[in-house]
TrEMBL record, chain A:
Protein name as catalogued: ECF transporter S component
Transmembrane segments: 12-33, 45-71, 104-125, 131-153
Keyword tags: Membrane, Transmembrane, Transmembrane helix
Organism whose genome encodes this protein: Clostridium senegalense
TrEMBL record, chain B:
GO molecular function, one term: transmembrane transporter activity
Protein name: Energy-coupling factor transporter transmembrane protein EcfT
Keyword field: Cell membrane, Membrane, Transmembrane, Transmembrane helix, Transport
Regions crossing the membrane: 26-59, 65-87, 107-130, 247-266
Annotated source species: Clostridium senegalense
Entry's localization field: Cell membrane
Amino acid sequence: MKLDVKKMVQASLLMAIAIIIPLVFGSTLRVYIPPFSATLASHVPMFLSMFLGTSVASIVGLGSSIGFLFAFPDPVVAARAFMHVAVGFLGAKLVEKNYSFRKVVLFTAPLHGVLEALIVMPFGFSFKDALIIVGVGTIIHHIVDGIITIPVLKALKLEKKVENNIKKEIA
Amino acid sequence: MIKDITIGQYIIGESFIHKLDPRTKILISLLFIIVLFLATNVQGYVVVFLFLMLCIYVSKVPFRYIYKGLKPIFILMLITAVFNIFFTKGETLVYQLGFLKIYKEGLVLAAFMIIRLTFLIAGTSLLTLTTSPIELTDGIERLLNPFKKIGVPAHELAMMMTIALRFIPTLMDETDKIMKAQMARGADFESGNLINRAKSLVPLLVPLFISSFRRAEDLAMAMEARCYRGGDGRTRMKVLKMTKKDTIAFVNFAIFTILIFGTRFYF
């Protein structure tokens, strides 16, 4: 495949922002319902990467989970971030099929919740903790971040930065 | 030129562990996580503890940095442990208060869980404290090279990681500037409930993403102007090389693994 340097660099910066958001906003936007924790807006880079294609969305998820290990040496958090590879990929697929962003957010939410719930079990979390707290918490977090992403998408579209990839008006 | 990029985790040093090839450290850290889950009794955890102490001592990393890595997870561990204590059923009832029952098995399970998470995070912290992010990225690329045959873009992934790490301090500065500029215009990021704080994020995120995409465009153009075409045919300025130190490290880790298996099958 022909290497697209611009997309590669865009993906890199989305990775960097995905790592920065918990670092910068961890003190003011962190929701902490043990054993679940999340930082609002941390999924926005994942949503934006969906508009850059399936491979970019997957790599942004993979890269951000590796980057998390650098910034937060906590394998549980990195493992949960790794699930964004699958969520990003599915979301990018739906975008390619011209689904509206609202539908993309809603369709990928349950997958996101289930995957993050499953991945925390090997680290000693009980099935109930994982499914009810991490799973449901992740779905809510996913949807809230989707709502936050909408004005960002509109602004980027006006800037014509990702116009070529947004084939349908944002619902 | 920025030689080493840090995210507040890397500690410059000259210890034996600092000088190991990053591939060695990455592999040993991954294997350490696996071996940690093979330890299932007190003797096993004693061996893990001693191995960790040896590594921390040899790395000359101050204990307070290891502790700093543990602090964010402490509350999580505590509350999950409490859940385990109260909701794990067993045979030996230790204490009862109304419907709440504490069994010996629950206490043991909670203790093991805390110990395991502590060792997990301490071990992972050691990797990031003794290896610079650029070294880590380089090591990851080399370790992913064999997977190129099945289509994994090892070089591109490593390049993306390098670019991301390079831009983290820049984007953090940018975020700080945008935040201060919006505050100068009356924005309030700290007060209000969670919903209001989330709303106040929008005037911060929109300019941040727009400037990032502009920056991406500029960087991509500059890279192509310097004839970057991807990984094929490129040489590298810094070459990773395994040394005797790496052999010693692997041998020590092998001994550690054998001891863990020993505790598992002979006690």
